[in-house]
Protein backbone atom coordinates (compact mmCIF):
# COMPACT_ATOMS: atom_id res chain seq x y z
CA UNK A 1 0.00 0.00 0.00
CA UNK A 2 2.84 2.35 0.88
CA UNK A 3 4.47 1.64 -2.46
CA UNK A 4 1.23 2.48 -4.28
CA UNK A 5 0.83 5.75 -2.36
CA UNK A 6 4.45 6.62 -3.03
CA UNK A 7 3.97 5.91 -6.73
CA UNK A 8 0.82 8.05 -6.87
CA UNK A 9 2.53 10.88 -5.01
CA UNK A 10 5.47 10.73 -7.39
CA UNK A 11 3.29 10.98 -10.47
CA UNK A 12 1.11 13.73 -9.00
CA UNK A 13 4.31 15.68 -8.38
CA UNK A 14 5.36 15.12 -12.00
CA UNK A 15 1.95 16.23 -13.27
CA UNK A 16 2.04 19.30 -11.05
CA UNK A 17 5.52 20.26 -12.25
CA UNK A 18 4.48 19.79 -15.88
CA UNK A 19 1.38 21.95 -15.33
CA UNK A 20 3.45 24.68 -13.67
CA UNK A 21 5.97 24.61 -16.49
CA UNK A 22 3.11 24.72 -19.02
CA UNK A 23 1.43 27.68 -17.32
CA UNK A 24 4.70 29.58 -16.98
CA UNK A 25 5.61 28.78 -20.58
CA UNK A 26 2.23 29.97 -21.85
CA UNK A 27 2.48 33.14 -19.76
CA UNK A 28 5.87 33.88 -21.31
CA UNK A 29 4.50 33.14 -24.79
CA UNK A 30 1.38 35.27 -24.23
CA UNK A 31 3.24 38.24 -22.77
CA UNK A 32 3.52 41.28 -25.01
CA UNK A 33 5.32 44.40 -23.75
CA UNK A 34 3.72 47.80 -23.66
CA UNK A 35 4.86 50.34 -26.27
CA UNK A 36 5.48 53.79 -24.84
CA UNK A 37 3.07 56.61 -25.56
CA UNK A 38 4.19 58.88 -28.35
CA UNK A 39 5.03 62.30 -26.86
CA UNK A 40 2.50 65.02 -27.64
CA UNK A 41 3.48 67.02 -30.70
CA UNK A 42 5.82 64.34 -32.04
CA UNK A 43 3.45 62.96 -34.66
CA UNK A 44 5.24 62.24 -37.94
CA UNK A 45 4.58 64.31 -41.05
CA UNK A 46 2.81 62.54 -43.90
CA UNK A 47 2.82 63.23 -47.61
CA UNK A 48 -0.61 64.03 -49.13
CA UNK A 49 -0.47 60.95 -51.36
CA UNK A 50 0.11 58.74 -48.30
CA UNK A 51 -2.92 60.24 -46.55
CA UNK A 52 -5.06 59.77 -49.66
CA UNK A 53 -3.93 56.16 -49.94
CA UNK A 54 -4.89 55.71 -46.29
CA UNK A 55 -8.35 57.12 -46.97
CA UNK A 56 -8.88 54.52 -49.69
CA UNK A 57 -7.49 51.69 -47.57
CA UNK A 58 -9.70 52.68 -44.62
CA UNK A 59 -12.69 52.69 -46.96
CA UNK A 60 -11.75 49.29 -48.39
CA UNK A 61 -11.50 47.91 -44.86
CA UNK A 62 -14.89 49.42 -43.93
CA UNK A 63 -13.19 50.77 -40.80
CA UNK A 64 -15.76 53.52 -40.16
CA UNK A 65 -18.74 51.15 -40.13
CA UNK A 66 -17.34 48.89 -37.41
CA UNK A 67 -15.77 51.66 -35.35
CA UNK A 68 -18.80 53.98 -35.32
CA UNK A 69 -21.84 53.46 -33.09
CA UNK A 70 -25.25 54.56 -34.33
CA UNK A 71 -25.44 58.33 -33.79
CA UNK A 72 -21.88 58.46 -32.47
CA UNK A 73 -18.84 60.34 -33.75
CA UNK A 74 -17.01 58.67 -36.66
CA UNK A 75 -14.37 56.14 -35.58
CA UNK A 76 -15.19 56.69 -31.87
CA UNK A 77 -16.09 53.04 -31.29
CA UNK A 78 -18.83 51.33 -29.24
CA UNK A 79 -20.37 49.58 -32.24
CA UNK A 80 -21.88 46.41 -30.74
CA UNK A 81 -20.80 43.10 -32.29
CA UNK A 82 -22.78 40.11 -30.93
CA UNK A 83 -20.87 36.82 -31.10
CA UNK A 84 -21.47 33.28 -29.89
CA UNK A 85 -19.32 34.12 -26.86
CA UNK A 86 -20.87 37.46 -25.88
CA UNK A 87 -21.01 41.04 -27.13
CA UNK A 88 -17.85 42.93 -28.07
CA UNK A 89 -17.78 46.71 -28.50
CA UNK A 90 -15.43 48.25 -31.02
CA UNK A 91 -12.72 50.63 -29.84
CA UNK A 92 -12.23 54.36 -30.24
CA UNK A 93 -9.60 54.81 -32.98
CA UNK A 94 -9.84 58.58 -33.31
CA UNK A 95 -6.63 60.56 -32.63
CA UNK A 96 -7.84 61.53 -29.15
CA UNK A 97 -4.92 60.94 -26.76
CA UNK A 98 -7.04 59.89 -23.77
CA UNK A 99 -9.73 57.64 -25.23
CA UNK A 100 -8.45 56.99 -28.73
CA UNK A 101 -5.11 56.16 -30.32
CA UNK A 102 -3.66 59.68 -30.48
CA UNK A 103 -0.70 58.57 -28.37
CA UNK A 104 0.02 55.49 -30.44
CA UNK A 105 3.23 55.45 -32.43
CA UNK A 106 3.32 54.00 -35.96
CA UNK A 107 4.98 50.91 -34.46
CA UNK A 108 2.09 50.40 -32.01
CA UNK A 109 -0.49 50.74 -34.78
CA UNK A 110 1.44 48.34 -37.01
CA UNK A 111 1.62 45.73 -34.23
CA UNK A 112 -2.12 45.94 -33.59
CA UNK A 113 -2.94 45.51 -37.27
CA UNK A 114 -0.54 42.64 -37.84
CA UNK A 115 -0.64 40.67 -34.61
CA UNK A 116 -3.79 41.76 -32.78
CA UNK A 117 -1.99 43.29 -29.78
CA UNK A 118 -2.75 46.85 -28.64
CA UNK A 119 -0.28 49.49 -27.46
CA UNK A 120 -0.52 48.36 -23.85
CA UNK A 121 0.23 44.74 -24.75
CA UNK A 122 -3.35 43.45 -24.51
CA UNK A 123 -4.44 40.78 -26.97
CA UNK A 124 -7.32 41.98 -29.17
CA UNK A 125 -10.40 39.88 -29.84
CA UNK A 126 -10.72 38.50 -33.38
CA UNK A 127 -13.87 40.54 -34.02
CA UNK A 128 -11.08 42.84 -35.21
CA UNK A 129 -9.91 40.92 -38.31
CA UNK A 130 -6.17 41.35 -37.79
CA UNK A 131 -5.58 37.96 -39.39
CA UNK A 132 -6.58 39.60 -42.68
CA UNK A 133 -4.85 42.93 -42.07
CA UNK A 134 -1.65 40.98 -41.40
CA UNK A 135 -1.53 40.25 -45.13
CA UNK A 136 -1.21 43.97 -45.95
CA UNK A 137 2.07 45.69 -46.70
CA UNK A 138 3.58 47.87 -44.01
CA UNK A 139 3.17 50.90 -46.29
CA UNK A 140 -0.58 50.30 -46.70
CA UNK A 141 -1.11 49.79 -42.96
CA UNK A 142 0.78 52.96 -42.08
CA UNK A 143 -1.15 54.91 -44.70
CA UNK A 144 -4.32 54.15 -42.70
CA UNK A 145 -2.51 55.42 -39.61
CA UNK A 146 -1.62 58.62 -41.50
CA UNK A 147 -5.23 59.12 -42.57
CA UNK A 148 -6.69 58.58 -39.10
CA UNK A 149 -4.13 60.80 -37.39
CA UNK A 150 -4.63 63.71 -39.79
CA UNK A 151 -8.19 63.50 -41.14
CA UNK A 152 -10.34 62.02 -38.36
CA UNK A 153 -11.69 64.30 -35.63
CA UNK A 154 -10.57 63.37 -32.08
CA UNK A 155 -13.48 62.19 -29.89
CA UNK A 156 -13.35 61.73 -26.12
CA UNK A 157 -15.64 58.71 -26.04
CA UNK A 158 -14.85 55.93 -23.58
CA UNK A 159 -15.29 52.35 -24.73
CA UNK A 160 -18.17 50.38 -23.27
CA UNK A 161 -17.05 47.25 -21.40
CA UNK A 162 -17.35 44.05 -23.39
CA UNK A 163 -20.05 41.65 -22.27
CA UNK A 164 -18.10 38.41 -22.19
CA UNK A 165 -18.39 35.74 -19.49
CA UNK A 166 -15.40 33.96 -17.95
CA UNK A 167 -13.12 32.64 -19.38
CA UNK A 168 -13.71 34.53 -22.65
CA UNK A 169 -13.07 37.84 -20.88
CA UNK A 170 -9.46 36.81 -20.23
CA UNK A 171 -7.56 38.49 -23.05
CA UNK A 172 -4.30 36.58 -22.55
CA UNK A 173 -6.09 33.41 -23.69
CA UNK A 174 -6.26 34.96 -27.15
CA UNK A 175 -2.56 34.16 -27.49
CA UNK A 176 -3.41 30.46 -27.48
CA UNK A 177 -6.32 31.06 -29.86
CA UNK A 178 -3.97 32.75 -32.32
CA UNK A 179 -1.48 29.91 -32.05
CA UNK A 180 -3.98 27.35 -33.33
CA UNK A 181 -6.29 29.50 -35.45
CA UNK A 182 -4.63 32.12 -37.62
CA UNK A 183 -1.88 32.67 -40.14
CA UNK A 184 -0.30 36.10 -39.65
CA UNK A 185 2.04 35.99 -42.64
CA UNK A 186 1.89 38.86 -45.19
CA UNK A 187 0.38 38.15 -48.60
CA UNK A 188 2.69 36.22 -50.90
CA UNK A 189 2.42 36.90 -54.64
CA UNK A 190 1.51 33.89 -56.77
CA UNK A 191 4.00 33.87 -59.68
CA UNK A 192 1.65 31.65 -61.70
CA UNK A 193 -1.00 34.39 -61.82
CA UNK A 194 -1.20 37.81 -63.46
CA UNK A 195 -0.44 41.09 -61.71
CA UNK A 196 -4.16 41.98 -61.81
CA UNK A 197 -5.14 38.65 -60.23
CA UNK A 198 -2.52 39.10 -57.49
CA UNK A 199 -3.71 42.63 -56.81
CA UNK A 200 -7.27 41.37 -56.46
CA UNK A 201 -6.16 38.53 -54.18
CA UNK A 202 -4.19 40.97 -52.02
CA UNK A 203 -7.24 43.19 -51.57
CA UNK A 204 -9.78 40.38 -51.05
CA UNK A 205 -7.62 38.34 -48.69
CA UNK A 206 -6.28 41.38 -46.86
CA UNK A 207 -7.78 44.79 -46.22
CA UNK A 208 -11.33 44.04 -47.44
CA UNK A 209 -11.33 40.84 -45.30
CA UNK A 210 -14.08 39.22 -47.38
CA UNK A 211 -13.37 35.87 -45.78
CA UNK A 212 -14.31 37.19 -42.34
CA UNK A 213 -17.98 37.01 -43.36
CA UNK A 214 -17.96 34.54 -46.25
CA UNK A 215 -16.04 31.77 -44.45
CA UNK A 216 -17.72 29.49 -41.87
CA UNK A 217 -16.25 29.39 -38.37
CA UNK A 218 -15.51 26.49 -36.05
CA UNK A 219 -16.52 25.98 -32.42
CA UNK A 220 -13.85 28.39 -31.15
CA UNK A 221 -14.88 31.13 -33.56
CA UNK A 222 -11.98 30.75 -36.00
CA UNK A 223 -12.37 30.81 -39.77
CA UNK A 224 -12.26 27.29 -41.21
CA UNK A 225 -9.34 27.61 -43.60
CA UNK A 226 -10.25 24.38 -45.36
CA UNK A 227 -13.62 25.96 -46.22
CA UNK A 228 -12.38 29.40 -47.22
CA UNK A 229 -15.13 31.51 -48.85
CA UNK A 230 -17.61 28.60 -48.56
CA UNK A 231 -20.35 30.89 -47.19
CA UNK A 232 -21.60 31.60 -43.66
CA UNK A 233 -24.44 33.09 -41.62
CA UNK A 234 -24.02 36.74 -40.60
CA UNK A 235 -26.51 38.68 -38.44
CA UNK A 236 -29.53 36.80 -39.75
CA UNK A 237 -28.35 36.92 -43.37
CA UNK A 238 -26.52 34.41 -45.56
CA UNK A 239 -23.12 35.49 -46.84
CA UNK A 240 -23.06 33.29 -49.97
CA UNK A 241 -20.19 31.09 -51.02
CA UNK A 242 -17.69 32.87 -53.25
CA UNK A 243 -16.46 29.58 -54.65
CA UNK A 244 -17.89 27.25 -57.29
CA UNK A 245 -20.40 26.18 -54.60
CA UNK A 246 -22.21 29.52 -54.95
CA UNK A 247 -25.88 28.71 -55.41
CA UNK A 248 -26.69 31.44 -57.92
CA UNK A 249 -28.30 30.15 -61.09
CA UNK A 250 -25.92 32.26 -63.18
CA UNK A 251 -22.21 32.33 -62.29
CA UNK A 252 -20.69 35.67 -61.35
CA UNK A 253 -18.27 37.09 -63.92
CA UNK A 254 -15.39 39.45 -63.13
CA UNK A 255 -17.49 42.31 -64.52
CA UNK A 256 -20.46 41.28 -62.33
CA UNK A 257 -18.31 41.42 -59.22
CA UNK A 258 -16.64 44.75 -60.00
CA UNK A 259 -19.98 46.36 -60.91
CA UNK A 260 -21.60 45.02 -57.74
CA UNK A 261 -18.77 46.35 -55.56
CA UNK A 262 -18.97 49.75 -57.23
CA UNK A 263 -22.74 50.30 -57.47
CA UNK A 264 -24.31 47.81 -55.08
CA UNK A 265 -26.20 45.99 -57.83
CA UNK A 266 -25.82 43.87 -60.92
CA UNK A 267 -28.38 43.32 -63.65
CA UNK A 268 -28.31 39.54 -63.25
CA UNK A 269 -27.75 38.98 -59.53
CA UNK A 270 -29.66 41.55 -57.51
CA UNK A 271 -28.59 44.15 -54.98
CA UNK A 272 -26.40 44.57 -51.90
CA UNK A 273 -28.56 44.40 -48.79
CA UNK A 274 -28.21 43.71 -45.08
CA UNK A 275 -24.62 43.67 -43.77
CA UNK A 276 -23.27 43.93 -47.34
CA UNK A 277 -24.89 47.31 -48.04
CA UNK A 278 -22.51 49.42 -45.89
CA UNK A 279 -19.55 47.36 -47.12
CA UNK A 280 -20.30 48.64 -50.62
CA UNK A 281 -21.76 52.08 -50.04
CA UNK A 282 -19.59 53.22 -47.14
CA UNK A 283 -16.44 51.56 -48.36
CA UNK A 284 -15.65 49.61 -51.49
CA UNK A 285 -17.31 51.92 -54.00
CA UNK A 286 -14.77 54.60 -53.06
CA UNK A 287 -11.95 52.53 -54.52
CA UNK A 288 -10.61 53.30 -58.01
CA UNK A 289 -12.13 51.26 -60.82
CA UNK A 290 -8.89 49.37 -61.43
CA UNK A 291 -8.88 48.11 -57.83
CA UNK A 292 -12.48 46.89 -58.10
CA UNK A 293 -11.72 45.27 -61.43
CA UNK A 294 -8.78 43.42 -59.88
CA UNK A 295 -11.02 42.18 -57.08
CA UNK A 296 -13.52 41.06 -59.72
CA UNK A 297 -10.87 39.07 -61.57
CA UNK A 298 -9.81 37.25 -58.40
CA UNK A 299 -13.35 36.59 -57.15
CA UNK A 300 -14.47 35.30 -60.56
CA UNK A 301 -11.52 32.93 -60.58
CA UNK A 302 -12.50 31.68 -57.12
CA UNK A 303 -16.02 30.89 -58.32
CA UNK A 304 -14.76 29.20 -61.48
CA UNK A 305 -17.61 30.44 -63.67
CA UNK A 306 -17.75 28.97 -67.14
CA UNK A 307 -21.14 29.43 -68.83
CA UNK A 308 -21.10 30.58 -72.43
CA UNK A 309 -22.97 33.71 -73.44
CA UNK A 310 -25.49 31.58 -75.34
CA UNK A 311 -26.19 29.42 -72.29
CA UNK A 312 -26.57 32.51 -70.15
CA UNK A 313 -29.02 34.03 -72.62
CA UNK A 314 -31.07 30.81 -72.66
CA UNK A 315 -31.35 30.86 -68.86
CA UNK A 316 -32.34 34.53 -68.83
CA UNK A 317 -34.91 33.98 -71.57
CA UNK A 318 -36.48 31.06 -69.75
CA UNK A 319 -36.63 33.04 -66.52
CA UNK A 320 -38.26 36.05 -68.19
CA UNK A 321 -40.85 33.76 -69.76
CA UNK A 322 -41.55 32.12 -66.41
CA UNK A 323 -41.98 35.55 -64.80
CA UNK A 324 -45.00 36.49 -66.89
CA UNK A 325 -48.15 36.83 -64.74
CA UNK A 326 -50.55 33.95 -65.33
CA UNK A 327 -54.22 33.43 -64.78
CA UNK A 328 -53.44 30.79 -62.19
CA UNK A 329 -52.76 33.54 -59.68
CA UNK A 330 -56.48 33.68 -59.12
CA UNK A 331 -56.30 30.28 -57.44
CA UNK A 332 -52.78 30.13 -55.99
CA UNK A 333 -52.45 32.43 -52.97
CA UNK A 334 -48.65 32.68 -53.19
CA UNK A 335 -48.77 33.63 -56.85
CA UNK A 336 -51.62 36.06 -56.23
CA UNK A 337 -49.69 37.79 -53.49
CA UNK A 338 -46.61 37.94 -55.72
CA UNK A 339 -48.64 39.36 -58.60
CA UNK A 340 -50.13 42.10 -56.46
CA UNK A 341 -47.15 43.01 -54.26
CA UNK A 342 -44.06 42.22 -56.35
CA UNK A 343 -44.67 41.73 -60.05
CA UNK A 344 -45.13 45.42 -60.87
CA UNK A 345 -41.42 45.99 -60.22
CA UNK A 346 -39.93 42.55 -60.85
CA UNK A 347 -41.68 41.65 -64.12
CA UNK A 348 -39.10 42.78 -66.67
CA UNK A 349 -40.78 41.69 -69.95
CA UNK A 350 -37.79 41.26 -72.32
CA UNK A 351 -34.99 43.11 -70.53
CA UNK A 352 -33.78 43.08 -66.93
CA UNK A 353 -33.75 46.52 -65.33
CA UNK A 354 -30.78 47.13 -63.05
CA UNK A 355 -31.94 47.43 -59.47
CA UNK A 356 -35.16 45.53 -60.23
CA UNK A 357 -33.85 41.96 -60.35
CA UNK A 358 -35.49 39.12 -62.19
CA UNK A 359 -36.36 36.75 -59.40
CA UNK A 360 -35.81 33.62 -61.47
CA UNK A 361 -32.06 34.21 -61.50
CA UNK A 362 -31.74 36.35 -58.37
CA UNK A 363 -29.20 34.93 -55.95
CA UNK A 364 -31.47 35.10 -52.90
CA UNK A 365 -34.02 32.71 -54.42
CA UNK A 366 -31.36 30.03 -55.02
CA UNK A 367 -29.53 30.08 -51.68
CA UNK A 368 -29.57 27.13 -49.31
CA UNK A 369 -31.43 29.22 -46.72
CA UNK A 370 -34.34 31.67 -47.32
CA UNK A 371 -33.08 34.29 -44.83
CA UNK A 372 -31.97 36.92 -47.37
CA UNK A 373 -35.20 36.75 -49.37
CA UNK A 374 -37.32 36.97 -46.22
CA UNK A 375 -35.29 39.89 -44.84
CA UNK A 376 -35.71 41.91 -48.04
CA UNK A 377 -39.45 41.23 -48.27
CA UNK A 378 -39.94 42.26 -44.64
CA UNK A 379 -37.82 45.41 -44.62
CA UNK A 380 -37.19 46.33 -48.24
CA UNK A 381 -34.20 48.36 -49.38
CA UNK A 382 -33.64 52.02 -48.61
CA UNK A 383 -31.47 54.60 -50.35
CA UNK A 384 -28.41 53.41 -48.43
CA UNK A 385 -28.71 49.87 -49.76
CA UNK A 386 -28.82 48.31 -53.19
CA UNK A 387 -28.36 50.79 -56.01
CA UNK A 388 -28.63 54.55 -55.69
CA UNK A 389 -32.05 55.92 -56.65
CA UNK A 390 -33.92 52.60 -56.47
CA UNK A 391 -35.80 51.64 -53.33
CA UNK A 392 -38.00 48.70 -52.43
CA UNK A 393 -40.79 49.02 -49.86
CA UNK A 394 -40.84 46.66 -46.92
CA UNK A 395 -43.93 44.52 -46.29
CA UNK A 396 -43.37 43.87 -42.58
CA UNK A 397 -46.58 45.71 -41.64
CA UNK A 398 -48.56 44.80 -44.76
CA UNK A 399 -48.15 41.02 -44.86
CA UNK A 400 -48.35 38.50 -42.05
CA UNK A 401 -45.91 35.63 -41.55
CA UNK A 402 -47.96 33.16 -43.56
CA UNK A 403 -48.37 35.55 -46.48
CA UNK A 404 -44.64 36.28 -46.65
CA UNK A 405 -43.98 32.53 -46.45
CA UNK A 406 -46.38 31.91 -49.33
CA UNK A 407 -44.56 34.38 -51.57
CA UNK A 408 -41.17 32.92 -50.63
CA UNK A 409 -42.40 29.36 -51.18
CA UNK A 410 -44.01 30.28 -54.50
CA UNK A 411 -40.80 31.83 -55.83
CA UNK A 412 -38.70 28.87 -54.70
CA UNK A 413 -41.12 26.39 -56.33
CA UNK A 414 -41.64 28.18 -59.64
CA UNK A 415 -38.31 29.94 -60.24
CA UNK A 416 -35.86 27.21 -59.26
CA UNK A 417 -35.36 23.47 -59.42
CA UNK A 418 -34.12 23.45 -55.82
CA UNK A 419 -35.73 21.66 -52.88
CA UNK A 420 -38.49 23.62 -51.09
CA UNK A 421 -37.43 25.53 -48.00
CA UNK A 422 -39.07 23.85 -44.95
CA UNK A 423 -41.19 25.50 -42.24
CA UNK A 424 -41.23 28.87 -43.95
CA UNK A 425 -43.90 30.45 -41.77
CA UNK A 426 -41.90 29.58 -38.66
CA UNK A 427 -38.75 30.96 -40.28
CA UNK A 428 -40.44 34.24 -41.19
CA UNK A 429 -41.73 34.59 -37.63
CA UNK A 430 -38.26 33.97 -36.18
CA UNK A 431 -36.61 36.54 -38.43
CA UNK A 432 -39.35 39.08 -37.79
CA UNK A 433 -38.86 38.73 -34.02
CA UNK A 434 -35.06 38.56 -34.03
CA UNK A 435 -34.54 41.53 -36.35
CA UNK A 436 -37.42 43.93 -35.65
- Mean pLDDT comes to 86
For the biggest sheet, the summary is: 2 strands, antiparallel
CATH superfamily of the largest domain: Cytochrome c-like domain
Q: Classify the helix fraction into a percent range.
A: 40-55%
What's the CATH architecture of the largest domain? Orthogonal Bundle
Low-confidence spans: none
CATH classification, class level of the largest domain: Mainly Alpha
The run of helices and strands is HHHEEHHHHHHEEHEEHHHHHHHHH
Q: How many structural units, i.e. domains?
A: 2
E-strand count: 6
Structural class comes to mainly alpha
Count, helices: 19
Task: Describe the overall structure.
With 436 residues, the chain is mostly helical. The chain folds into two domains: 48-173; 197-434, Cytochrome Bc1 Complex, Chain D, domain 2 (Orthogonal Bundle). It is 44% helix and 4% strand. It contains 19 helices and six strands. It has helices at residues 2-30, 48-60, 63-66, 106-115, 130-133, 138-151, 174-181, 195-205, 211-214, 254-263, 276-281, 289-303, 309-322, 333-341, 343-346, 363-366, 371-379, 401-415, 424-434, and strands spanning 80-83, 86-89, 232-234, 237-239, 265-266, 270-271. The strands form three sheets. The chain has a two-stranded antiparallel sheet with strand order 1-2. Strands 3-4 form a two-stranded antiparallel sheet. A hairpin with a 2-residue loop joins strand 1 (80-83) and strand 2. It is globular, with a radius of gyration of 25 Å. The N and C termini lie far apart (68 Å). The mean pLDDT is 86.
